[in-house]
Amino acid sequence: MKETLLSLILLLATFVVYAEDVTVKGKLVSASDKQPLPYATVSVASKTIPDQAIRKFATDESGIFSTTLKAGDYIFTFHFVGMNIINRNVEIKDGESLVNIGQIEMLESSTELAEIRVTAQRPLVKVEIDKLTYSAKDDPESSTSSVLDLLRKVPLVTVDGEDNIQLKGSSSFKIYLNGKPSNMISNNPSQVLKSMPANSIKDVEVITDPGARYDAEGVGGIINIITDKRVDEGYSGSAGANGNTFGGYGGNAYLSLKYGKFGLTGNGAYFYHDRPEAETTFTREDIAPNPVNQLIQEGRTNNYGGGLLYNMQLSYEPDTLNLFNVSVGQFDGRFHTDSEQGTLSRGARNYSYLLNNNSSNHFGAFTLTTDYQRTFKKKDELLTISYRFERNPGDSKYETEYSEVEDYFYSDGYRMRSINDAGGKEHTGQVDYVNPLTSKQSIEVGLKYIYRDNSSRGDNRFLDPENGNAWMEDLSRKNDLDHTQQIMSGYAGYGFKAGKFGFKLGLRGENTAQKIHFMSSKVDTVVNTDFFDLVPSAAFSYQVGMTRTLRWGYNMRISRPGIWYLNPYINDADPNNIQYGNPNLDAEQTHNFNLNFGSFSQKVNFNASLSYSFTRNAITSRVFIDEYNGREGVTHTTYDNIGRNQSVGLDGYLSWTPMPIVRINLNGSVGYTDIQSTEDANISNSGFTGLVYSGLTFTLPKDVRLTANAGLFSSNIQLQTTQSAYYFYSFSAMKSFLNKKLDLSLNATAPFSKYINIDVNTTGDGFEQKMNHRNPMRTFRLSLTYRFGDLKSSVRKVKRTITNEDLLQGGSQEGTGAGVPVTGS
């Protein structure tokens, strides 16, 4: 009897344990775009007592939820801010071990409270193994903002008062559009991004750990701007216009439409920039071993110009397995500068003159990309074949005239001009394959070939009074260049994710062959170089809690100098301060380590990142005093592989929504940089840098939004140069009309500060120079945006396409710690 009773007890205990161990799982997504809804609230109640919850938990970052329950009938209730509450009846039968209720779709909604109508939003930031994603389409301010305005609120990204963009406190990064590093943006990112409406953007990805599938880019990260790829049945669009008190103006338009198997998205913009006169004071003290001398220059400069850009994507989906995309984009911009400069030299060289200069720069890009994507029965298995062609003009010209000349090399009334015809063409072919081996493991492999053909031709002339005032060619200033480059690469990556842990490992191999033909007045040389690089990468993540993630990453990158750095063309518009590139530059290698912690929920988004990087042969701006065309004491600015850099930094981001009508965001960083010349131990620089940017937004009744922004930026550390700290601030007000289809916005930048002053100090062997920029800041901007259309269903875009991010692009200043230029205007 006792044995029978014991058996019954054990059987009952086994049944109870078994009954309690029934797992119920599913996935929560948005009905509109099938995107997962992370950190949504799920409550469970018994069907007999529906008002009393017996379980409460949250979905993970992928919208997946799981819990354990006994057999019975239950009601699952799903809550997500900005979505209609949804209930789902779930029956758990005896003997079951797993109940999968599948994919739950939630519809968007708005809540009206008394006279205040607030449309709630999803968490704006999503964290993944190797990147952070800012959801632009869920930002309520995107309707009247530009993409540049949007970047001010993206984690780890800051935009200063001069519209220069920084990532993690550094200019060492790249900006891409839909994964493509088109020169449409890289040549003048601030102007292009100011002209793009934020409502055409879906996400902004901050890729802190570029994996093996990315070209071996020697930068600290990537900002990838993803346009709204949803093309719905029917049409939708927007049109906008803006103007400011500086005399600038512009307009933009966005359109998406779909009929049957064809889809089209496109956006275009025109802008005109006119900045009031800026003042510059330059002083250089020459000391031993140079002859003692003082050079003082005071000048005034006016910049103006405009550009036109467009980007269009056409999709054709013959069936569910095949997809074809064609995209065409172009940016064409011209900027002009008129300046007047007075020069006085005293000491070893006594002279003075007044110089009037007018110059113009033509830059842009034309890009044509074709993609074919093949999907398979296995989910997320993809084969993509792509081709891209890009043409990049980079022409410039200037003309100068001397007057009030005393004891100078050029006589009174002397005139000179220069025309530089530069640019290049690029062809790229690429094949990518992605295979999710299991629900936890995936692999990716790919092959790529790039052919680049760059050239630079200069026409340098002077007005010869002894030849009937004819423009005569100046062969002594000849500096021409032909540059071809072929890159063959392959990569393989492995990803694993199980539960709270995930990682990505990758290895990329690149073989580079290039030929440089350097033609100057003194030499005619052809240089051939070949090198091979193995580039490893690794990223790990661990989910500490439902809304908290810890990440660690390492990557090694190389950076090949672009045409801007290689171009030997000498810009001697200011004969005392000349600038030129270096065709003998080698690629640089950078090693990056970072540790990141993020906590993202509907009310509070927080991210902190600790990073360390070092570069042994950094491409660095080099400034020295030397002779030029028979004149002594000329400042030369060029580039060389002479930097040995290391830096450590701490970056933080906070976005807090204490109540539906208030949102506060904060971006900041502090770091220490140490730069040492590999050629001269006496040339070094080190110090702390820091910046902070904050914003406060109020969403008021009657569709009114008020915003205030402010930023403080400390000294910038370079090898020979330091820059003073400065600050800026702005205010904006927006009002919506016609059921939120028409938005009117007024923005004021530095309304109480007419100018901003920036000091730049540079030291070198036998000289020290100081420069003060006094730039106009106070401006008011009015913008108008109207949205139209009616959409129903979506069509896909290819998930992989060509990305060329291996080149250092154009710029005029070195980046902090890695020798790449500031990506600002």
Question: Could you explain how this protein is built, in words?
Answer:
- This protein has two domains: 19-109, Immunoglobulins (Immunoglobulin-like), CATH 2.60.40.10; 126-808, TonB-dependent receptor, beta-barrel domain (Maltoporin, Chain A), CATH 2.40.170.20.
- A hairpin with a 6-residue loop joins β5 and β6 (86-92).
- It contains five helices and 45 strands.
- With 825 residues, it is mainly beta.
- 41% of the residues are buried.
Write the SSE topology.
Layout: H1 2-20, E1 22-30, E2 41-46, E3 53-58, E4 64-69, E5 72-79, E6 86-92, E7 98-106, E8 111-113, E9 116-118, E10 125-127, E11 131-135, H2 147-151, E12 157-159, E13 165-167, E14 174-177, H3 183-186, H4 189-195, E15 201-207, E16 222-227, E17 231-244, E18 249-259, E19 262-286, E20 293-316, E21 322-347, E22 351-375, E23 382-406, E24 415-435, E25 441-464, E26 470-473, E27 479-498, E28 501-520, E29 524-545, E30 548-561, H5 563-566, E31 577-579, E32 588-600, E33 604-628, E34 631-659, E35 662-677, E36 684-700, E37 704-713, E38 716-717, E39 721-723, E40 726-737, E41 742-749, E42 755-764, E43 767-776, E44 779-795, E45 807-808
Parallel strand pairs: 1-7, 14-16, 30-45, 31-34
Antiparallel strand pairs: 1-4, 2-3, 2-5, 5-6, 8-9, 10-11, 11-15, 12-13, 15-16, 17-18, 17-44, 18-19, 19-20, 19-43, 20-21, 21-22, 22-23, 23-24, 24-25, 25-26, 25-27, 27-28, 28-29, 29-30, 30-32, 32-33, 33-34, 34-35, 35-36, 36-37, 37-40, 38-39, 39-42, 40-41, 41-44, 42-43
